[in-house]
Structure formats: C-alpha cells, structure tokens
Amino acid sequence: MTTPRWISSWLPLLQRPFTRSCPRAATRRLLHPPEPAAAALTAARRGSCTPQSRAFGLSACRLKSTDDFYSSGYTHDDDDEEEEEEEEEDEDYLKDSEVEELFQQQVPTGIGQGHHRVFIVHPDVKWGSKKQYLTTAELMMAEAVGLVNTLDNWTVVDKIILSTKTPEKKKIFGKGNFQSLTERIRQTAGITAVLVNVERLSALSEREFEEAWGVKVLDRYSVVLHIFRCNAKTKEAKLQISLAEVPLLRSRLKNEMVNLDQQGGGSRYIGGSGETLYEVQQRQLKEREMKIRSALEKLRKKRHLLRSQRKHREFPIVSVLGYTNCGKTTLIKALTGDSGLQPRNQLFATLDVTIHAGQLPSRMTVLYVDTIGFLSQLPHQLIDSFSATLEDIKHSDLLVHVRDISHPETVNQKVNVLNVLKNLQIPDRLMSSMIEVHNKTDLLENYQSAESDVLPISALEERGLDELKTAVEEELVKSTGKQILNLNVNLSTPQLSWLYKEATVQDVQVNADEGSAVVKVIISAAAHGRYKKLFGGA
C-alpha cells in the first residue's frame, strides 16, 4: 500500500509522543490532515486505522500531563488566533524557578532529613464517634506501617496498639496507658520519631508528646505530606503540596512560640516595627500562602481553558479512581498498551493526573485519566489542597472505580472512596453510571463476587479487559449522547475523510458502481449537526 503523502511528511512526529514543544498550529494540521477521498477509501477497504487513531498512536500513546494532551488536542480555525492565545497564556505561565522557590520555602522540619527510625502507636478507640466500625486496629496499624515503609531510609523499629476511651483529650490515652507508653518509648533504643496513627494531632497534643518522649512526633497528615513531597514532579503538584503544608507549619510555629514564651523571649518586638517575632512569622506564612493560592488559581484557569478546548475534539474522558495502590495505573497500562507506564507496588505512586489514549471495541478513541489514590483518615485540608487536580473527575464522561478485592479492608476502602467523592460533590449522573471493577482477582482462589453489577478483572494478567471495554463503551454512548448511524457518503466529496476525523468510523460498505458508500459511524449530536450543515441531510 502506498503511503499517503501527508503521512510521509509527518512521520517523524508520528513516531514520538506529543509534548508541549509541539507547535499548536502544526499539531492542528497533524490532527486534521488534508486526506483525499481516494486515500480514505483505500484505507477503509483495507481496514487501516483512522487518521484519528494514527495521530494518537493508540497502541502506545502516553501524554505526560493534562497540559500535554489539551495542548496537542486543541484545534482552531485560525493559526494567528492560536499564536495570540498562546502568547496570552504565556504571560500567566508560571516559571519553574518561581514554583520551586515556593516549594522549597519553609519546608516542615524534622521530617525529610535523613534516616528515621519510627515507633508507631495506634490509639484503638473503644466506642463513640471516633470508633472505626469497618476495619480493625490491626489493619489500621498495617496501613501505618505501609506508609512508613513507603519512604526511603525510614524503618519501623517498634509498634503498639493501645486502647483509649478519650481520644479527644490532650494526651489521647488514660494516665496509666500514657505512662507505660512513655516508658516503652524511652527504653527502645534508636528511636528518632513517633508516629501517632491518627488523622491530625492538635498543636497542644504534639507539644505534650514531644516534651514527654524527647523525639519528633508525627501524625498521618505529616507523613502523607512527606510522601507527596517526595513524589511531586509537576508544578501543580508542588504548589498543592506547599498549600497543604501551611496548616502544619502554622501549628508548629504556634508550638515554637509557646516554647519561646516559656523562656521569656516570645513577646519581644522586632526592632521598631511594633510586631512580635510570632506576628512577623505568621505574616510571612500568610503572604506565602497567598502567593501559592494565586499561582494555583492561574493553573486552575489555564486548566479550565484547556479543558474547554479539549471539548472541541469530543474525545470521551474516563477517570480511573480508587484507593491508593489498588492497581489503577496497571489497569490503564493494560487498556492502552502504553509501555511508558511503570506501575509501582507503592502507596501514592501516582500523584499527578495523567491522560492516556486507547481504543474501545468500536474503534472509538477514549482517554483514560489516571488519578491520585485515596486514603482513609485524611484531613479535609489535604483534599481541599488537591481540589484543582480532583476537579478533573467532575468533568469526566464516566468513572471507573477500581477496588483491590484481595485486600482485607476492601469494603472499608470502598466506603472511604465514596465518601471522598461525596465531599467533592461529584454530579449524580457520574455516580449513578460509575463502573465498579474488582481488581487483583488473580490473588484469590475461587473468586466469587457477592456483589452485583461489578466486573472481576486482573489488570496484571489482563483478564476481563474485553468485558470492561464493552461496558465502558455502552456507558459512554449513553452518557455522551453519541449516536450510531449509517450514512450515505458520496466518495467524490470529502465526506468520508471528514467522518474519519470527526467521528468513529466502524464500517464502510462501498458501492463501486455508484461511487458511494454506506458508512457506519458513532457520532456526537454536535458533530452530526456540523456534518449535515456541510454536506446536507444525507
């Protein structure tokens, strides 16, 4: 088969993934090649891939960030207007050095420096609103150990589960339990930090514990934040982590000033400014917080603009979500064949939202969004800080909830994921159409689901993927309002070429004698309207 001229000219670009350096005007020409009807007819007869699929390299398409995809997928009718828009965006574009400066300012001390030998204490609440009913103290301890082991050079030297009836009190535990815990910590050699396995410690509790035990005291919030800081790569992730650290920094500043007050130095004024040291540091922290929020707002506006540009392409978006380490990235790799994805058996291995293109059985192009994993007992401040990233979930066409069905806490994990989605105010249409997937069935013997309307799969062994793709396709046709139509096409016009670019061509039945064809397509209502306007009501 002779390679069409437009493919030969663009072959170097087709052989590498899209990046931000690819000019928009050039990208638009790549996604909308001037393909003659004859070449399209030859491709249809021989079952070749569509220009759409060729452009995206569906078998191994990896777009490193949402910005990469939205930039590459954007099309416009006027190249000059594109260049003007790009210049306008660049005015607001944040420099790497600016983000890095904000990221490295006022890093919480005592967490990331060198090696940590951690003692973990889990308060087992016996009754009341703080009691965990869907899990056990042993399983929660296991998750805390997993968090610590996720970090390089961190090790667990000892752990203990202690009962408590009064978790709201300053020292959490009763007098006897607290005294025995203090003795055990002091007798354990080499401890550099104690992790109290609760969502968030108050400033008062943290100070009391550090005075009693003589080592750094951590909670789940501070440990998870450090994991995020270690995994952050993009500007948006770094800014969101910096914002999430502000409450932690404010709490520690308060503790430090209490210590200064006790030494008689906390109320001193700085020069002739009329401000105390505490007030100066609070103001500096507030100014930094405002800078971070301003920078995030720029990124949010840009993300909104790029999302609206993406809608022009009308590619369905499927957000793959679930509890951390449930196998989301492995599943997306299996669905798309993206060899660039390297899943890791680690908590919060995925921190930045990435988009990956694949094909459904009908050859419809679909974009899978790999999202940040969820975790139980995380404060709202942390979720709020990542609201810009999680906002992409709201704008999806479909949600796929992946569960690690082999995990002993799988039911509790499901509840936590659904609670986060509820707090994010995900639209009812997405919640009602969400597909639930039971992953890692290869780790269970004689797996039998007691739940209806779920799909059992093994992403690692690529089992059950055909059924999942079919289910995704059926839901997308419903949710996006796409239609399956048979259109009569005159082969002497650009109709067939246009359909390959703007819709999903499933089948072409050629009538060579009449120079026409019946084309079966999946097409959106908007694209069908444009088609009728251009070519009449055929």
Topology:
Blueprint: H1 5-14, H2 24-31, H3 37-45, H4 51-56, H5 66-73, H6 79-91, H7 96-104, E1 116-125, H8 137-150, E2 154-164, H9 175-187, E3 193-196, H10 203-213, E4 216-218, H11 220-231, H12 235-262, H13 277-311, E5 317-322, H14 328-336, E6 354-359, E7 365-370, H15 380-385, H16 387-394, E8 398-404, H17 410-423, H18 428-433, E9 435-439, E10 454-456, H19 465-480, E11 483-490, H20 495-502, E12 504-511, E13 516-523, H21 525-535
Parallel strand pairs: 1-2, 1-3, 3-4, 5-7, 5-8, 8-9, 9-10
Antiparallel strand pairs: 6-7, 11-13, 12-13
Helix pairs in contact: 5-13, 7-12, 8-11, 10-12, 11-12, 12-13
Features:
3 domains, 21 helices, Rossmann fold, single chain, six-stranded mixed beta sheet, elongated, Alpha-Beta Plaits, 16% strand, 47% helix, four-stranded parallel beta sheet, disordered N terminus, 538 residues, alpha/beta
User: Mind telling me the C-alpha Rg?
Assistant: 28 Å
Report strand %: 15-25%
Number of DSSP helices? 21
Assign the CATH topology of the largest domain: Rossmann fold
What is the residue-averaged pLDDT? 77
Number of structurally distinct domains = 3
Largest sheet: 6 strands, mixed
Which oligomeric form is depicted?
Answer: single chain
Strand arrangement, major sheet: 6-7-5-8-9-10
Unreliable spans: 1-92
Number of DSSP E strands: 13
Q: What is the class of the largest domain in the CATH system?
A: Alpha Beta
Helix and strand content put the structural class at: alpha/beta
CATH evolutionary superfamily of the largest domain: GTPase HflX, N-terminal domain
Distance between the termini: 31 Å
Shape: elongated
Helix content percent band: 40-55%
Q: What is the CATH architecture descriptor of the largest domain?
A: 3-Layer(aba) Sandwich
